[in-house]
Glutamine amidotransferase (Noviherbaspirillum suwonense), 516 residues
Amino acid sequence: MCQLLGMNCNVPTDIVFSFTGFATRGGRTDNHNDGWGIAFFEGAGVRHFVDYQAADASPIARLIKQCPIKSKNVIAHIRKATQGQVALENCHPFVREMWGRYWVFAHNGDLKQFAPALDGQFRPVGNTDSELAFCYLLQELRRRFGDAMPALPELSAALRALTTEIAAHGVFNMMLSDGSALFAHCSTQLHYLVRQHPFAEAHLADEDMIVDFSQVTTPQDRVAIIVTAPLTANETWLPFASGELKVFVEGEPVTLYA
Amino acid sequence: MCQLLGMNCNVPTDIVFSFTGFATRGGRTDNHNDGWGIAFFEGAGVRHFVDYQAADASPIARLIKQCPIKSKNVIAHIRKATQGQVALENCHPFVREMWGRYWVFAHNGDLKQFAPALDGQFRPVGNTDSELAFCYLLQELRRRFGDAMPALPELSAALRALTTEIAAHGVFNMMLSDGSALFAHCSTQLHYLVRQHPFAEAHLADEDMIVDFSQVTTPQDRVAIIVTAPLTANETWLPFASGELKVFVEGEPVTLYA
């Protein structure tokens, strides 16, 4: 199995603290050694880093810990291969363009007997169930909404139906973002918290590292962190319910009625 | 205007030497300061790095100079903005998936009155003429060949026709790769050389750097380097003819008859 990390904020924020704890699980405090990846939205663009080395040993992961990249939407993944060999094309997150924007996707879990009919518009490059699910998601969104991106409530309702359909095939914890919202679906394990004023100190669970967020934020900042297993020992992480899709916008979960 | 660098090889090769000279033009020996990018194929996967900082000042460019990434197909670009503001989404190379493989594209030049009809399958995320041309190229290839990727001669003939059509709108020096071949079209300026046994020493023109390739190669290695302006002072670079599309496979230009 793999682990997921997502961040959604109202101002561009660096993910160095959370990524440092998360990447440690890629080889040191846990055995997610079969590659890792991270994608940062910056404006409409995406910085996309993938590697089949363990995150704990990767020079690119080291660079990301040293050079704060500020983003409002980030998705990261450390991989423990279940389907698909250890190869660059099988590292999450995956990126595709649809409706003139980039979509970033990462998955934790394992889908069985999942062989959806693809019409060729979005095709997997590697051989994971995850990339297949991503291609199917995009295809079905485009089939429902055509060439025009729908408003967030309609999009969220469609994603709720599609993630439920895919999750019937196994474990489908996933994160998806188009740079404006972050969608997170939980089958078995996903937690989140929102950091906002008054900010406090946080202690990483996997590393001897402490940040006092009150020193590096303004009172307006709001940051949602979504992760497979809680990253800090002294904060309250809220578990997702099984089967739940949450939509994060501007640093907090939103309730939408289509 | 911008500058292009491509590499096509018969064995995975690192591009540190050529990229070092090339990146120096992004801010030091030349004024291509408006971003840069590089994409490396590794198997079916792609490592894609883009940055809107000048290549000469970018920590990611520094990492690439220090950590040799081996690849059989690489495309790099340094940008001097002509159309589209300085932003991550406007940095080349661009990446899209078609026919279950990634396609990487970079362009040097300027297209005028170029407003092709896009059917929505491939849409630009940024606002450069270059990304628009890339989307149009892919759309037209898919329109001609449907869901099945054609053989190289047919693909090359189609690209020859399409690049000629696009080049009628202005300057269209471009590089395109799917990880198996590298296609390079010249409107105004493009040079190449093939390094093979017996390998010799090469001196960068833009940096005080020398490599003796006979020390780092085997007699079977073959590497084609394609670049806007020659990178070394002591080797013979062959100019492309205006309007010429060359196809590089396994480290050398090939002649194809569809």
